[in-house]
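Help!! Second protein's tokens look totally different from the first
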Amino acid sequence: MYSSVKVQKIHGWRKLLLYPLVLCLKLFTLTIRVRPTAEMDAILNNCPDPTVVAFWHQNLFLIWKINYMLKTTLPMYGLISPSTDGAWLSAFFQIFNIRNIRGSSKRGGLSALKMLQQKLKEGANVAITPDGPRGPAKHMKRGVPLLALQTQTDIFLIGMHFSSYWKLHTWDGFIIPKPFSKVIVNGKKIPYEEFKDLSVDALRTKLEQALDSL
């Protein structure tokens, strides 16, 4: 159960260390031109209902900025690992007003899934990296399709293309755009009506292919 999983958290002066980092990140990002495609822009400007948002883990660097571009009053919840790494990420995203549910496919997954279902029913968006937190990279796990099917919720897929970037030697090939580079952000909205009759595994395959194509 989720309550039996030890959830690591950042407290006190350690959390204060994040604020200079956030300031540096914002200044750094000012040098980057983030441009949504026409399809992405249409989605960003018309997303009134709770949605499951999915993107590959390697694109996590700029997702806070994409959240700012989303024209909605709905709160955003992210699924973040209960590990120490997840604790820093959780505290970091809270500064950007992205709330979180702590859990992963291997630790507290079932309880975290139920909590995400509840947030969607309460009228919030939820964001998941479907290949996280440890991979394999770009392999869609069952969480996103299961969550969307059980809550009868639309799915919003996000992909990014970088004109110039650094790629870290991590399991996900984490991408950091270089200063003064351009990032094209593409999106695809898949309404529940289009996949309601699919099985979890069939939808998983469909979503993995769609996300790879963005």
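Here's the second one for comparison:
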Amino acid sequence: MSSLTLGQKRVILILAGVLILVCSYFLVFQKNMTRASELEQKTASLNREIDRLSELQVQVNQMRAEASSQQELVNEFVYLFPCRVPQESAIYNVYRMMVKSGIEVTSIAPGVEQDFLFEGKFIPFDGRTDVETASTPVRAEGAELTEAEKNPETRVSLHEMVGKTVGYELQITGTQKQIFKAIDWVADRESPTSVTNLSLSYDSSNGKLSGTMKIFFHALNGNGTAYEDPIDLEDFQMGTDKLFGVLKEK
């Protein structure tokens, strides 16, 4: 093989350098550029995620403040309810309504106690009947009492509280003003109470209205509120010819 001239050697060296450069471009530089592009895309994606999470963190902080405020409102509402409303307490409150309004109650018929809140679910109840309107029972028939029902004054979580309501149908007589005052007395009570089934007729002989009124007393077993007996025995009189004795304004 004849020896290469100096010019040929230079050309070969130049071609070899170009080949090495081309190979380096495709095998190293381009590969690194592709990797760099992928990393740049991932970095941009991560930056967008960081921005999104930062916005969510701001929202979370706002929601925490709102949740704390809402929890305070829930607590205030929960503590409005007595932990239980025994029959004697309900009847005494009917008596106080008579004293404040001046209407006459000639009979009281207690209804059936039922749930309006169980396991965190409100039971549809329109307050006009003693029958729950829920399409499916919230608890199985014959189920044992919950701990909140056994010990109403203890504090349990909202999910474990049991709401109770019972209606008392009253036979009443009074002027329009007196009956409005009785309704206002119910509406102004701190403890949740409601009036339904107001059915009255006018008696032209005495200018008064007579008929029925149904008052529902509501309680929340397990809200941690200690029960306080509202009855003042010195002020509470049962009549002989009337349901209650002489009314005493306090």
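Reply: Different proteins will give different token patterns, so don't panic. Confidence is low (pLDDT under 50) at residues 132-136, 246-250.
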